[in-house]
Amino acid sequence: MSARIDWSQGPVPCVDCGRPMRPSHVRRAEWPGTLTCHGHGRCSSCAAKLRRAEAQEPEVPATPTRYVWESAIPAASSIPQAHWVTEAQGAVARALRERRLVLTARPDITLVHGRTPRIRCVCPVRPMTDTEAAALARRGLGTGDPA
Per the confidence metrics, is the pTM higher than 0.85? Predict the structure, then answer.
């Protein structure tokens, strides 16, 4: 709920710069030396500055974190390991979209050999912005529910 400005006593100072303001329906000639009030207690100049500042502020995602994905590779597989790397990249991309995360750098992919071969991806990530989610959605790549 916003507080209404009481104009009965004449001009009211802007909450940011303190310059005198008049209601938007009153002409400058009626209240000389005043600026038009553009809402929220701000004069037209301060309201324009605030709008420009808000338009220039990008969505600031949280600090990058790491996401680790790991999966077993069938030991007796006839599929080349290089193919498993590509499969892992696709699985990581799907998992990140579901969690509304995006990569901030290339993932570190490691093949772990041994009795049970595994593929491991360590990815630097950050939360996805709404703009990025919309871009993915336009390409038919759904994302998880907004956090």
Answer: no
